[in-house]
From TrEMBL:
Organism: Gonapodya prolifera (strain JEL478)
UniProt-listed Pfam families: HSP70 (PF00012)
Protein's name according to its UniProt entry: Actin-like ATPase domain-containing protein
Source taxon at top rank: Eukaryota
UniProt KW keywords: ATP-binding, Nucleotide-binding
Family: Belongs to the heat shock protein 70 family.
Protein's UniProt keywords contain Nucleotide-binding: yes
Family annotation (SUPFAM superfamilies): Actin-like ATPase domain, Heat shock protein 70kD (HSP70), peptide-binding domain
Gene Ontology terms, MF aspect: ATP binding; ATP-dependent protein folding chaperone
Length: 643
């Protein structure tokens, strides 16, 4: 990318456990952006509020959690969820039991999920004077992403990033809108959303062009499966790849991931020490948490070989995990994979035209593997049994592949070049509308957009009045797989009032439902033939009470801009203070007392730097310049020769 461009593309993968950001280099190749000097790319999505009212995010926050501090993490599991939706309550309660921070509902509606940094306690009414401030999941996740945004600003200060954010395929419209809000609050211009499986497919084709070219030379279409076991979800999709297009035919996921396996291992090991009547201290719990990944891999191999796995912790007896004990979680993973794949084949064959033959397992020419679970020996054997060994590809990097694919997609959007043709996607969950025509009438359900329908798509439906002089018509937009519409997730409500008077059936209302790439939903209703804007209503996700409203998002965006300006000013003052110290030391003898005094002052400033406000920094800089006036460049050399 040229430095003259005012913006550049980035891909953002906000996972359950980690955050990865990738951008595209000058040659058009996506590469991950490190977040520290150790060149680490995977930043933990964790945040801690320390005693100085400063936020600690990433690796430091994770270390604090393992040491016993109250750190907010795994917020993706409750993103865009509410307490009044039965489908969401199970996920909220599961996370409540596992974490040590507080998850509550909104005071007014008790719908929106809010969290505090306070430890869990009895569920008493929220008292702002006695309890800390509560945050929405979007706001806290945006703080972690903002940490990365500041890193990008330091690397490319004169350019603005334009981002594609990735989401799991089973995210509904509210969860996708919440993800979109996170990108905006963090200071990114969000180009759109992309399913994680589609990003993996893009990255796999970019890394293995010869493999796909060999498939396409044999036929006009190649069927590819994507299997991704992440920290929070298991995602599977079936995609079609041609010379002119590439995208999912059907996709689905389940809330079961590597973190669930880690938690199973943790509970299993702690239970064994409890049976031996050993006092399980916090240090032991922290050690088991840190080593859960290692035990998981060992047990996976031991399960295949029917061997027991040894667990050693210093000052504690050795315990053993039997192959039969690990079999339970392995069977659960196998059942999820087989069920998802069978359901996806059925959806694929329903959505394809009659001229095409049904897709079978033998038609899949390649299986794209990603996620930490792709490296588990048991998972590899399970996939070999389902698909065959010859179609399994080498696992993509579980940390960076999704973000790299999203960055490459953003690069294609901005440059207008599409080397793989059009990128398509499908509707992950069916969208239905229930209509209430009259005041006392019942709701009538209509399925507007079926699951598996290619997107972007716009569907139009017409409805007529059912009573004379009907004043209004109400639409409820729902999303979900349940046969009873009231058990699906409510996305939003449109009430179209001010209908013209007339006998029943004389007034027609048109409803448009538009689904964009990333499955973002927009609904609009209007009276046919009416040009007056007052009889046009739009439904947006903010009206559901499950995400931040547009005003709240704008307020947080403005707060970020103000904070960014203050941060830049503060960084400039701190750099000026350090430059003043450097100028004062320039040319002095290192052994001189004057040099040592300046070093002591600089060390004192560095230790107290965080406590300085902008006003104090300005006074500090003026004081230092009065003590050590700037030395002209020509005099620096004189001082250097003199010493």
């Amino acid at each position: 990318m040229s430095e003259k461009n005012v913006s550049y593309p980035v891909g953002i993968d906000i996972g359950t456990s980690n955050l990865v950001v990738a951008w595209v280099d000058r040659e058009g190749k996506p590469e991950p952006v490190p977040f520290n000097y150790h060149q680490q790319y995977s930043c933990p999505v964790e945040i801690l509020l320390d005693n100085d009212s400063h936020y600690v995010v990433g690796e430091r926050a994770k270390d604090k959690r393992l040491d016993g501090h109250t750190t907010v993490h795994e917020l993706k599991r409750v993103l865009g969820r509410s307490f009044d939706e039965p489908n969401d309550l199970a996920a909220i309660e599961t996370l409540r039991q596992r974490v040590n921070y507080t998850i509550t509902g909104d005071d007014t509606t008790d719908k929106r999920v809010l969290v505090t940094f306070a430890r869990k306690s009895s569920r008493r009414p929220y008292d702002p004077s006695k309890q800390p401030r509560r945050y929405s999941p979007e706001e806290l996740q945006a703080k972690v992403l903002r940490f990365y945004r500041n890193i990008l600003s330091n690397k490319r200060p004169k350019q603005e990033p334009r981002a594609i954010l990735t989401v799991p395929s089973n995210f509904n419209a509210a969860q996708r809108q919440a993800t979109f809000n996170i990108g905006r609050i963090a200071g990114f211009e969000v180009l759109g959303l992309l399913n994680e499986q589609t990003a993996l497919l893009i990255e796999d084709r970019r890394q293995n062009p010869q493999v796909y070219d060999s498939f396409l030379n044999l036929g006009s279409e190649t069927i590819v499966a994507v299997w991704d076991l992440g920290a929070g979800t298991l995602d599977i999709s079936i995609a079609s790849v041609t010379n002119t297009s590439m995208g999912a035919i059907a996709t689905d996921s389940v809330n079961f991931g590597g973190t669930d396996i880690d938690n199973y291992m943790y509970d299993l090991i702690i239970a064994k020490y409890t049976e031996l009547k050993f006092d399980v201290t916090h240090e032991v719990e922290a050690t088991v948490r840190r080593e859960s990944e290692k035990y998981k891999i060992r047990c996976s191999q031991g399960y295949l070989d029917n061997l027991e796995t040894e667990v050693k912790i210093s000052n504690y007896p050795v315990v053993y995990i039997q192959a039969s004990e690990f079999k339970k979680v392995c069977q659960k993973l196998t059942e999820h994979t087989e069920k998802l794949f069978a359901d996806l084949l059925a959806v694929c064959n329903q959505s394809r035209t009659k001229r095409r033959e049904d897709i079978r397992t033998d038609d899949i020419k390649r299986v794209v593997l990603s996620g930490g679970g792709a490296y588990l020996p048991h998972c590899r054997l399970m996939l070999q049994r389902i698909f065959g060994d010859e179609v399994l590809g080498e696992p993509l990097d579980p940390k960076t592949a999704v973000a790299a694919g999203a960055a490459y997609y953003a690069y294609n959007l901005m440059s207008g070049m599409y080397p793989y043709g059009q990128i398509t996607d499908t509707v992950p969950l069916p969208i239905s509308v229930v209509v209430k025509s009259a005041k006392d009438s019942a709701y009538v359900p209509w399925t507007v957009v079926k699951r598996g329908k290619p997107i972007p798509v716009e569907v139009t439906c017409d409805f007529i009045t059912t009573v004379d002089d009907q004043a209004a018509m109400e639409f409820k937009v729902l999303q979900g797989m349940h046969g009873q519409y009231e058990k699906n997730n409510l996305i939003g409500t449109v009430v179209l009032g001010g209908l013209p008077n007339g006998p029943k059936g004389s007034v027609t209302v048109t409803m448009k439902c538009h689904v964009s790439i990333g499955s973002q939903l927009r609904v609009e209703a209007k009276v046919v033939g009416a040009d007056d804007i007052s009889v046009v209503k739009q439904c947006t996700i903010q009206h559901t009470g499950r995400t931040l409203t547009e005003n709240e998002v704008e307020s947080l965006v403005e707060a970020y801009k103000k904070e960014s300006e203050e941060l830049r000013k503060r960084n400039h003052l701190v750099a000026s203070v350090h430059q003043t110290f450097m100028d004062a030391k320039y040319g002095l003898n290192v052994a001189s007392q004057q040099y040592k005094d300046i070093v002591d002052l600089e060390s004192e400033f560095e230790s107290e730097e965080k406590k300085f406000t902008i006003e104090l920094l300005e006074k500090k800089l003026q004081h230092l310049k009065s003590l050590y006036p700037p030395v002209p460049a020509k005099n620096k050399y004189k001082r250097l020769r003199k010493n």
